[in-house]
Amino acid sequence: MPRPRVGIFGLTGCAGDQLVLLDCEDELLALAGMLDIRDFLMASSQNDGDSPLEVALVEGCVASRRDEERLRRIRGRARWLVALGACATGGGVPAMDDGNDRARRERLATVYGQTGLSYDSLPPRAVTEVVPVDLSLPGCPVEKQELLALLAHLLQGHPPPPVEWPVCAECRMAENRCLLLDGAPLCCGPLTVGGCQARCPSLGVPCLGCRGPIEDADPGAAVPVFAQNGLPRDAIEARLRLFSARARWEKAE
For burial by CB atoms within 10 Å, which of 31, 71, 101, 185 has the most? Predict the structure, then answer.
């Protein structure tokens, strides 16, 4: 039986999600034996940029015309396209200004002078806003075990089950004391999709929401609770959108 052809791609981003795959040291040789990795620029200088793919993993946001054109070519090659990480699923930190084109152009001119206005630069968008996406794997970066589980499911020909619980649920399962009760002014755990095993709260660090909003997130109900801790409303909304400004957040009323 032929091995499924796979491509791993990076758009505008830090390449952290691709590094997670390369850091799967104990599993990497087994993966290489089960997958026909045709296109992975970070790992190889010899790549097949034209063949059809069963699976394309794409990290990074779409922040230029070059990104958009490349993403559309990848979509055309792939049976399954997976948006990998916070930038691909929700715009990530690059989109934290929520696509304010005027502010972006002003920054280009400030940093690069008038030449900057001619650069290939667009308001950052999530991969999910530009092309149809079959699966999304959130995180900044993604969790190693989730990435391996996704690949294992796709090798069997079906997607992994979705995560339908928030980080808060994993905090309770880990028997962590709620950081909000211990004086943290804001923790995004109640609104953020789980799957990270409450990594940050388990280390005493409030959740920053890097995995994006859970399906039924209700920031409108959460903001007044956070505001009781003395945080101004705009600071709360900025924190909620830090990693996922382009995700489907409801306006926090």
Answer: 71
How far is the CA of 107 from the CAs of 38, 41, 110, 119, in angstroms?
38, 30, 5, 12
DSSP reduced 3-state for 13: coil
Kindly tell me if the per-residue pLDDT of 141 is higher than 60: yes
- Say if residue 100's pLDDT is above 70: no
How confident is the model at residue 98, as a pLDDT?
56
* Residue 51: how many other CB atoms lie within 10 Å: 12
78-84/53-59 β-pairing: parallel
Taking only the tens place, the pLDDT of each residue in 22-49 is 999 899 889 889 999 999 999 998 899 9
CATH of 5-155, one of 3.40.640.10, 3.90.226.10, 3.40.50.2300, 3.40.50.700: 3.40.50.700
Strands lying side by side in the sheet with 78-84 = 36-40, 5-10, 53-59, 78-84, 135-137
3-state helix, strand, coil in the chain (%, to 5): 40, 15, 45
C-alpha 134/C-alpha 155 separation (Å) is 15
* Inter-CA distances, 123 with 98, 138, 219, Å: 8, 21, 24
Where are the chain's structural domains? Answer: 5-155, 167-240
- At CA 126, angle to CA 125 and CA 131, rounded to 5? 105
